[in-house]
Amino acid sequence: MFLKLTGKMKKSALPVLAVAFAFAFFSCSNDDGADYDYESNNAVVNFTLGSNVLSFDTSFAYDNSLLVGADNSAYSPALARFAFALAFDCYDTAKVSLKTSSKNPSSSYDNTALYSNFGFEDAEYVELSSSDYLADTRDLTNAVFAHKTVDSGDKKYQIFTVAVQGSSGMDQWFSNFDVGDFSDAATTKTYATLSATHSVAAAVAAGNTDQASVQAESISNYTTLASSFATEHKGFALASLRLKEKFEAYVAEHEVSGSEKIVLLTGHSRGAAIANILGKVYEDDSGWTSFAYGFATPRTTTASNASEYKTIFNIVNTDDLVTELPLKNWGFTRYGTDKAASISSTYLSEWKKTLPLASAYVSANGEDTSYLNGVASGRTDLYKLEDASAVQSNTFNLTFDTEAEANTMLSYLNGYGFGIAAYDPYSTFSVVENDGKYTLSATFRPQFFLNTLVMSICLASSDTTAATKFVTTMCGGYSLLHKRALFTMSQKITGFAYSHSAPCYSILADNLE
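Structure tokens predicted for Lipase class 3 (513 residues):
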């Protein structure tokens, strides 16, 4: 274990972390056989989110033998530590600087400069842009690709890395909670026809490709989504398919003829979910030798054979609420093998060495999630307008003395930038008169509630009057069960960033075997 305290932290409304890391590197060879000795070469990595600043030391070693000729079905602590560095370095706000290297990034953040220190070439930051797609424009991600060629006797290997970024912006948070449902024709229609954002998937599921063919992206993504990816979390799966298209184009540009292809897939949070699904894709592809290491991996699939995948490893802090979503009771799991431990139960002393505000650590370990189970009994029910087996009254009601007041609030909710427009596929609002009072009422699908949950998470650190008014208004209209769910989640929001953060996963990468 190489962790020691060197950090200071400032207070913040939503604990998001700014982290500085120190790394030691050694024994890396590039394709021309030149040796790079980094055994005593420390590096500093600045990882900034919000105003918090944290520093701690860690060490890891990289060598081509971690990937070339290695057993990809055996968990490698050394590879996990290397993957950890790539997973957190790929965030837009990260910068890794080797103290004695001339290959460091400039003063601005550069999430590609690290790779050349290990002999990797053509490191490229890839962004999926909403302007490239006419539908499902929230299902996006960013990543870093790199590659290197290794000669080993009479064989030549080409190693590719794919480091996938975690959630960036509210749209990707909405995607995190849009699990989708393509389990059968009836539920596919219920889900896919809710709005124009799902119209392409609806067309493909119905066997009508004319509508889909006019889209800017390949129809094959939607064909896959409605068939072999039907069990996957839709928001993660479509982002995975889109990123796969980008990666395959990158491989085609840089592939060395006659080489055996190896890929290391990694990421944190949403990035880990996408790496998890891509890990399944490339384990199934005989043309690749794949290694997938995810950190804080959410659940990604309802596939019954998910545990049969042997080259995918999920490093999980069991205190981390993110790793509990989507719910197990909704049928969700992860591909591959979980390597899991509780920071609060096993490594809290290490955590206290890392964070001055150790008392702020919040654990979701053993948390009763029945308040979310009650919202829907499964992924299909999330998209049904009425479901007698789940919440009896999926209603939203705010009462006013005058019709004008009710209509003013309706206009406000409709006009707010992150308001009902974002919820439109999942609800029907109206103003109803009852005994001289006027009620702003909505009948909503449970997904509507999950979107409010996203709103509360993303706006938790905001003091703006509009944001506060919006969240307060929306939460005030829900039934008692939903209010309890939101309250319970709000208690977690102020602390879950700690259990989800880089220091936790550095500790786990250093200690899990």
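Residues 219 and 299 are 26 Å apart (CA to CA).
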